[in-house]
Amino acid sequence: MKNIFEQLSLETKCLEYEPLAKKTTLGVGGKARWYVEPATLEDLQILLGETYRQSISVFILGRGSNILVLDDGFDGVVVRLVHPFWRSIEVLDERRMYVGGGVRLKEITGKATELGWTGFEFMEGIPGGLGGSLRMNAGAMGGWMFDRVESVLYLEKDGTVQKVSKNSCEVTYRECKTLKDTVVIGAILVKEGQDDSAAIRERIEAYSKKRKLSQPREASAGCAFKNPLNQHAGKLIDQAGLKNLCVGGAAVSGVHGNFLVNKGNASSQDVLGLIERIREKIRMEHGIELEQEIIILGR
Ligand code: EPU
User: Fold this and answer.
1) Please, are residues 62 and 126 in contact by the beta-carbon 8 Å criterion?
2) Which of 3, 35, 118, 131 gives 101 a disulfide partner, CB atoms 3.0 to 4.6 angstroms apart?
3) What is the pLDDT of residues 79-122, one digit of tens each?
4) Alpha helices in 77-188 (DSSP H)
5) Non-local CB neighbours of 241 within 8 Å, separated by 6+ positions
6) Which residues' Cβ are closer than 6 Å to ligand 1?
């Protein structure tokens, strides 16, 4: 890796054995063998190209809101697009904006509200960044990310730049297969319509209230499982009597059954143990195999 780091500009942050727990909302897990915050597109391309040639694993960590890092850490390079270079929002015309891969959804909602653009309200409160949210087609309140996408700019595993239109993306509930194993550089998002900023703010407020009442405030990685067809994982877990079930420092939230919370000292083993206990019970009671939404990063 040293020879790769030497090819990157001085503005790019390169570290070894970097702790990851605090870079995730769940706050669990070990260190990344290498850690890079690229400051330019060229640096990211060099990094991807060289690691690809040398078969070094790379993981792009977004805002860390849907991730469980294992206690042993990750024996590869973790890349985060947090440098200001990746965080620009540019209004292109009266209906489209370009958003960098590292921009938080909260910032997108803020910009759209200011412009009176509708269709971005559901992003309020999703604690992620654009890249990760597109890769998993994050959603809430009846909307999902690809509702607002015109096209996505991304890098292939080897650093090659690609642009894909929404229609060419394979998009389903909580997944965009086209963007798997890619790095989202940015996307062009399109408004749904126009409204008063005050009216948009009111809708956002209503979503926020609903979220605060139905979702826990403790450290979590969002919903742990995808909703099975025509079912809600949270409801199934709740009805199975699993709320507040603990394994070590990890617990099923008492507020929402699909949130696993860190009571303060959870290990990744605790969280994995809890996931297994839940899956087993739901399998036994309903014959349903709950599919994880949380991404597991580790050896
Ligand atoms: N419910 C229960 N008990 C619970 C949790 C929920 O009975 O412990 C019931 C609720 O009363 C409601 C139904 O289940 O009737 C659905 O609950 P909710 O509205 O919270 O929606 P959800 O399907 O559990 C989904 C997304 C969330 C998103 C919310 C709000 C998934 C897996 N989850 O939750 O997304 O915030 O809708 O729109 O699709 C995430 O993906 O990480 C996430 C948090």
Assistant:
1) no
2) 131
3) 999 999 999 999 999 999 999 999 999 999 999 999 999 999 99
4) 105-115, 130-135
5) none
6) 140-141, 214, 222-223, 226-227, 232-235, 238, 256-258, 293
Place of tokens 């309140």: 141
- How much distance in Å is there from the Cα of 245 to the middle of ligand 1? 18
Q: Which residue has the tokens 């303060």?
A: 264
- Write the burial class of residue 187 (CB in 10 Å: 0-12 exposed, 13-18 middle, 19+ buried): buried
How far is 68 from 29, CA to CA, in rounded Å?
A: 7
Give the neighbor-by-neighbor strand order of the sheet with 13-19.
13-19, 31-37, 74-79, 58-60
Integer Cα distance of 139 and 185 in angstroms: 20
Q: Which one-letter amino acid corresponds to residue 184?
A: V
As a whole number of angstroms, the distance between CA 152 and CA 146 comes to: 10
Q: Determine the Cα–Cα distance for residues 128 and 112; give it in Å rounded to an integer.
A: 17
0.70 exceeded by pTM: yes
Between 197-214 and 105-115, two packed helices, what is the crossing angle to 10 degrees? 150
Distance CA 291, CA 102 (A): 27
